Amino acid sequence: MFETCYTRLVSEVQGLAELFRSDPILTYGILAALFLLIVSLGSGLARVDIISLGKPQVLIHIAVAVSLAFLLRLLSDRLSTLPIQSSVPYSPILNLTDLSRFPLYLAALAYGPSAGLFSAGLVAAYHADTPFPSWNEVILGLELALVGWLSIFPSPRQARWAGPLNVVIAYLLAWSTAGLAFLRYTSSSITVPSLWQQHQEVVGGVVLSALLLYLFRPRWYRRRFPHSRLASSHSEASNETTTIEADVQRPPGSPQVVEDEPKLERRQQEGITAPNRTVEVDDLV
Among residues 139, 137, 112, which one has the least CA distance to residue 122? Predict the structure, then answer.
């Protein structure tokens, strides 16, 4: 079995290499997708977002998101077999297959690009029919990594519209790079009807997911996902560490700074009445 898989992999790689030399659209599409993936994962690793995957609560959240995505796709497959489904014209609202993206989007927005790519890998394992993931699963992985990257800024923890906007931008970036390469690989020409055929079963779920994400306020992200490396508490902690290091490295003889005291009694004793004010000891003498 191993030799068969290896032989198939070598033949596919050789075929792709020949296509790269003869088709610039395919080449540039894949290169652009790889660039976006490297930038996304690099931005997440710069914030050490992969550490959050080692926490049990984070793993439980990702497992629940992947399980919900699997159940939604299973429900869609069952609904498609009903007799009434054949008499209903296509409507993106009725298609629940890609509404399964919603919990995956939520996990990527909460924990960053590494968690998004990890979720896509679990989804590919759920639907594994071949030893290697399909094109759609690869594009989904890129899309979730981009969602996690874009959630750094604008962050859904700061603005309510950030989550839906990040999802739409990630979808457009993923399908305009890897998606075009996939379309070029499977068809000889790229036309408007072929593009619509590629997206008509996906765009409805993306739009519905974006609308559902708008229902979640920034406060909800901060409360439900406190262990995320994208949370503002980590940046605040790093700022506090920088302040402590600056105090330790203060040269001798320099005026000491009295930090703000939240208690009213302490401010009254020092003669400070204005809140959120930093006063030097020399000013109090």
Answer: 137
Using a 10 angstrom Cβ sphere, with 0-12 exposed, 13-18 middle and 19 or more buried, the burial of residue 122 is: middle
Integer Cα distance of 229 and 52 in angstroms: 7
> And the tokens for 61?
């959240």
Cβ-based neighbours of 193, under 8 Å, separated by 6 or more? none
Kindly write down the DSSP assignment for every residue of 47-116, as one continuous string.
TTGGGGGGSHHHHHHHHHHHHHHHHHHHHHHHHHTSHHHHHSPP-GGG--TGGGHHHHHHHHHHH-HHHH
Range of the domain at 147: 2-232
- Tokens 């198939």 belong to which residue? 8
Distance of alpha carbon 123 from alpha carbon 280, whole angstroms = 58
Please tell me whether residues 183 and 276 are part of one structural domain: no
Which amino acid appears at position 194 of this protein? S
- Pair 220, 271 in one domain: no
Q: Give the pLDDT confidence score for residue 19 in this predicted structure.
A: 66
Residues 6+ apart with CB under 8 A from 19: 26, 185
Cis peptide before 154 (omega within 30 of 0): yes
pLDDT in the model for residue 253: 53
- Interatomic CA distance for residues 262 and 205, integer angstroms: 48
Closest CA to 151 of 109, 120, 190, 114: 109
How many other CB atoms sit within 10 Å of the CB of residue 178? 25
Q: What is the pLDDT of residue 170?
A: 94
Q: What is the pTM of this model?
A: 0.71
Both 142 and 283 in one domain: the answer is no
The dihedral formed by the CA atoms of 209, 215, 220 and 221, expressed in degrees to the nearest 10: 30
pLDDT surpassing 80 at residue 219: yes
